[in-house]
Amino acid sequence: MRPQRGGRRQPTAAEMAASAPRPPGEGSAGTAAAGEAEQRVMAASRLPPGALNLKQFLRRQQVLQLYRKILRAIREVPAEADRRYLKDWAREEFRRNKDATDEDAIRMMITQGNMQLQELQRTLKLAKS
């Protein structure tokens, strides 16, 4: 409350809202829940429509990391024609599956990609020795 002339204080807007009569069954807990729901809606509305959730963001990072590792491994291939073929193959595989949304399918593709990367790395290691 703010002091007023003559020593009397006037209630602030927040104090007035807190002391306002409420319909039966709606206590402070109901108001808090409604406020939290409103905050969640406001927080969700701040995100752009195509924003990824945390799980999708982390999965995307895994895919990009795998792609980079594959391209780095392909750089080690000695023959230019083979390098070009493998690079085009990797690019096409990732492009073909870029619109996948099923979590299980994406996880499976990442696993397969990691196995193919390991196979390529083993083959390159054998070729060098």
Automatic annotation (TrEMBL):
Q: Where is the composition biased (Low complexity)?
A: 25-36
Spell out the coiled coil positions from the record: none
* One Pfam family it belongs to: Complex1_LYR
The keyword Transport belongs to this UniProt entry's keyword annotation: no
Q: Where is this region: Disordered?
A: 1-37
Cellular localization per UniProt:
Mitochondrion
Kindly indicate whether the keyword Cytoplasm belongs to this entry. Answer: no
Q: Chief location of this protein? A: mitochondrion
Q: Which UniProt keywords apply?
A: Mitochondrion, Transit peptide
Domain named Complex 1 LYR protein: residues: 61-119
GO CC aspect terms: mitochondrion
Q: This protein's superkingdom?
A: Eukaryota
Instruction: Report the sequence similarity comment from the record.
Output: Belongs to the complex I LYR family.
Reported function: Involved in efficient integration of the N-module into mitochondrial respiratory chain complex I.
Provide the protein name: LYR motif-containing protein 2
Gene name per UniProt? LYRM2
